[in-house]
User: Which sequence fits this backbone?
């Protein structure tokens, strides 16, 4: 009887990212630049709407929402531009939230109103609000298109 030492597998391990994850729409530099610019646009519009930074928006929960949105918008732009390829799809998912959150807030604040916040109720045609809708809508459409493309190629 001979004692054998266990053999170790020296074959190269499979990559954790697929080629599709690092190519295609999610990795396209022009689309990432557009997504980052739109995300920063959403943040900038909200800084302007609150009267600059730090600005003031009352009630407190609306002001905190603005700050959170502005921070996440900057983080999304950075992720789309600088994150490793395998993490960019996550950036596009969060970009959907950066677009969708303010869209829902716009409808609620102008429609039924929000608790203790009636400043914008019925104010559907405010120019900054319309600009915000356009930028958020473009970011939402772009993000969903990129995510759809990434899903198809996976």
Assistant:
């Amino acid at each position: 009887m001979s004692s054998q030492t266990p053999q170790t597998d020296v074959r190269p391990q499979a990559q954790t990212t697929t080629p599709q994850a690092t190519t295609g729409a999610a990795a396209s530099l022009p689309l990432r630049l557009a997504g980052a610019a739109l995300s920063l646009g959403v943040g900038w519009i909200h800084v302007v709407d609150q009267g600059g930074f730090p600005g003031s928006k009352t009630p407190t929960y609306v002001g905190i929402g603005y700050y959170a949105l502005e921070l996440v918008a900057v983080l999304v732009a950075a992720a789309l531009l600088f994150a490793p390829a395998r993490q960019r799809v996550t950036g596009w998912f969060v970009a959907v939230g950066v677009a969708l959150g303010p869209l829902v807030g716009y409808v609620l604040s102008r429609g039924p109103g929000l608790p203790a916040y009636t400043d914008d109720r019925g104010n559907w045609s405010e120019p900054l609000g319309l600009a915000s809708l356009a930028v958020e809508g473009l970011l939402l459409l772009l993000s969903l298109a990129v995510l759809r493309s990434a899903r198809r190629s996976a």
